[in-house]
Specification:
Blueprint (H helix, E strand, L loop, with lengths): L6 H12 L7 E2 L7 H8 L6 E9 L2 E8 L6 H7 L4 E3 L2 H8 L17 E4 L8 E4 L5 E5 L1 H8 L2 E3 L3
Parallel strand pairs: 2-6, 3-5, 5-8
Antiparallel strand pairs: 1-7, 2-3, 2-4, 6-7
Length: 157
């Protein structure tokens, strides 16, 4: 019997299709809530995994899409973005994205989050991002990720 997509993943797939992406979402047999777990499951370098992180830029939530092998330098990245970058509280992350931690997709949120994308994701011919649930991912490219999120490239390290 075919597996149905989790409702969050089905919503993400619909958003992807509406933005010109193929909308194919893959469901892993076990959660891939960390970049390392997703990379192992897909057989790709951890740097090709997109981590979706919510921060506050001054007082406003923003989404930063980061290569799986990077950590965000909040001081330097905040300065590049023209403000102070801090981690968003868990409740704000859940409210802003409508998706669980470990499964936050770059799209499909109930709020319009300004999106910034780690420019080193462009080093990979394809990248993989969560699709709204910890067991789901989708494949895209850096340029397509910029397009479907209306994101801006930024150096995060």
């Amino acid at each position: 019997m075919p597996r149905l997509l989790h409702p969050n993943a089905a919503h993400v797939a619909d958003i992807l299709i509406s933005r010109g992406h193929h909308g194919v979402v893959i469901t892993a047999p076990e959660p891939t809530a960390t970049a390392a777990a997703a990379a192992r499951s897909l057989g790709v370098p951890v740097g090709a995994i997109v981590k979706s992180l919510v921060f506050l830029l001054d007082d406003d939530p923003v989404l930063v899409l980061v290569s799986g092998d990077h950590e965000v330098d909040m001081t330097a990245t905040g300065a590049r973005l023209g403000g102070t970058l801090t981690r968003a509280p868990l409740e704000l992350v859940k409210h802003s994205t409508g998706q669980p931690l470990g499964g936050i997709a770059p799209v499909g949120h109930p709020t319009n989050l300004p999106t910034y994308i780690d420019e080193t994701l462009g080093d990979h011919p394809e990248v993989w991002a969560a699709a709204g649930h910890p067991n789901t991912v989708f494949r895209t490219s850096y340029s397509e990720l910029l397009r479907i999120t209306a994101g801006l490239a930024v150096r995060v390290t």
